Here is the input.
Amino acid sequence: MAIPKAKQYILDFEQMGFGMFIHWGLYSQLGRGEWILNVGKLDKTEYEKLSDTFTAEDFDAEKIVLTAKSAGCRYITLTTRHHEGFSLYDTCGLSDYDAPHSAAHRDLIREFVDACNKHGIVPFFYHTTLDWHEKTFDTDFDAYLEYLRKSVETLCKNYGKIGGLWFDGNWSKPDADWKESELYATIRKYQPEAMIINNTGLGARGELGNPEIDSVTFEQGRPTPMNREGMSKYVAAEMCHTLNNHWGIGNEDLDYKSPGELIKSLCDCRKVGANYLLNIGPEAQGAINPFQKELLGIIGRWMNIFGEAVYNGRPCGIGGVGSNFGLRSTDGKYIYLFVYDLGSIGDKNVTVGGKYSGAYSFGGVTDKIASIEWMDMEGNLEFTQYGTTLSVELTGHPYGKSYPVRVARATVG
Ligand code: GLC
Here is the structure.
């Protein structure tokens, strides 16, 4: 069976590879995650007063966009409205529970989109479909769906071209008729090339909910290879991940992942051709948390060296020992060999666990290789090819360097 031909905007999405997710809303003022209203059983009327103290005085869209850009992200998916029901955009009269009616008195999505456009980052809109504020969600579902559709229409009409919409919440009423086709038709009318994504949640990773969907999601889990044979259309894949265990900021969530772990997760995604959407939770009034910024900065330093392999590499059936694997560049000129945990070479009295230079095998290499070198330093590596097996004499990191994943670039020819 054939693999369907991909639409260009879906290929462009895959080429972006790495995105920043941002969860920010009224809940950020409480610093206990974006679900605190529900999980903490808070009083709704009291909670909604958070709109009166939401000044957004530290929200500097340009700073956020530049932080994403220097981490190597090519797009940002921001919560325009999360389950709490509060909109960061001007709902143009659909609801008073929005940023222009809050203490901020600004359209924060306008600022976000302008900053993205200024710096060449593609804006994506996260939008909840489940709503804890809007009463019709429980009392008159059809009326609610129309409110949701008009909200999305507002987003599609008022902010110029956007990269896509990222919905979340259909899993809250699995048996309801969400009238998805009507919602997606509204998007296609104004944004024909927007990616339409609808999170299938923790329980149904990688599933395709509706034929209009352009990418499946893998929430907090490793994406599995996509089998596109016989599909009616080519869809992308994306995994989303948080830096710790909450999406909206958790002031007492100290369980941060390490930069090495995050870089490996990014590579694990690219191994199967999926994008990696990595979340930050800005602080109460929109400032970026300094530690989160540092973490992203380290990823950015790695991306500065190896980013080409992340953006341009596509799965081509090359496997290595352990987690190692290979990708082929979209133009077919290079094979990128991803090597995990190489350690660094020092002296037995100072370095623990560093692997020394040696032969590493990769299977499934059908191209004839002309030369191979590390992307972080010059100098050709020795190699041999037998059939589809490539055996490379990989040198360890010189003392003073250690990358969680190191990539060698082989030139085809
Ligand atoms: C979940 C949660 C939500 C978060 C999302 C991110 O579906 O409900 O809070 O926004 O995952 O993937």
